[in-house]
Specification:
Layout lengths: L3 H4 L7 H5 L8 H21 L6 H14 L3 E2 L5 E4 L21 E7 L1 E3 L2 E2 L2 E7 L3 H24 L3 H15 L2 E2 L6 E2 L25 E8 L6 E7 L7
Antiparallel strand pairs: 1-4, 2-3, 3-6, 4-5, 7-9, 8-9, 9-10
Pfam families: Peptidase_M24
Protein name: (Fe-S)-binding protein
Length: 237
């Protein structure tokens, strides 16, 4: 008679489970609080941005807002990007000395940590009035929610979500920057668990495990707009 231990099937976690695992401090309430504080900080930073500011001064101001809110400057640089710098991939440094104009576009991209939990968020804003800038900013947020709705409605894979985002962005008249392909989020640090992108994930992503990033660029390479948030169901919006 075979030994019971040796005859039982050994179960190994699948790749998706490994990619989506969390650390020992993971907490739904903690992750949601980090997200809440991140979105609030984005609004507070945006309210302090004024035409005539130099981008580097806006970044310093943003860091001060995060620290004052009890947030740690965390796993990627705090970014406030003005004008032509809104085109650049996040890993590419801004051109120094860019001043926000009277009718101009800027975006905020922050990744603060609240206690053990990672926040990450971004949004675009228009100073003054400019129809094309305003449309790009609106479309970046609208496309985020369109893609999120496809995930919630169909259980689409990460790969399918970004293929869809690319298609819709083109119909809107923009190009999608695939240098910002979404990523994991968790109790800090998610990089100890997984560093791959959402756009490469071949399975349906789970809620509260991923950041969906949308960076739209003008086809003539004049400006861009950005929106990102945690992948969550409608009830959180």
């Amino acid at each position: 008679m075979p030994n019971q231990a040796t005859s039982s099937a050994v179960r190994f976690p699948d790749e998706a489970s490994l990619v989506e695992r969390v650390g020992p401090a993971f907490s739904v309430d903690g992750m949601l609080m980090a997200r809440h504080k991140t979105r609030a900080a984005i609004r507070d930073i945006a309210a302090r941005v004024r035409p005539g500011m130099v981008e580097e001064d806006a970044v310093a101001m943003a860091k001060g807002v995060l620290v004052a809110a009890g947030l740690a400057l965390s796993w990627h640089p705090t970014r406030v990007r003005f004008g032509k710098n809104t085109l650049k991939p996040m890993r590419q440094a801004s051109e120094p000395g860019v001043v926000l104009g009277e009718n101009d576009l800027f975006f905020i991209d922050i990744a603060p940590r609240f206690e053990a939990w990672e926040g990450d968020g971004g949004a675009s804003f228009v100073a003054g009035e400019h129809a094309d800038y305003a449309r790009c900013a609106r479309d970046a947020e609208a496309l985020f929610h369109d893609v999120r709705a496809k995930w919630q409605r169909e259980g689409a894979t990460g790969q399918a979500l970004y293929a869809y985002a690319d298609e819709v962005a083109r119909r809107m008249g923009w190009t999608l920057n695939f240098d910002l392909p979404g990523h994991r989020v968790s109790d800090f640090p998610h990089a100890a668990i997984h560093t791959g992108s959402l756009a490469d994930f071949e399975t349906t992503p789970s809620a509260m495990r991923w950041i969906l990033e949308i960076h739209l660029r003008d086809p003539q390479q004049r400006f861009g707009a950005f929106f990102e948030d945690m992948l969550l169901e409608d009830s959180y919006y």
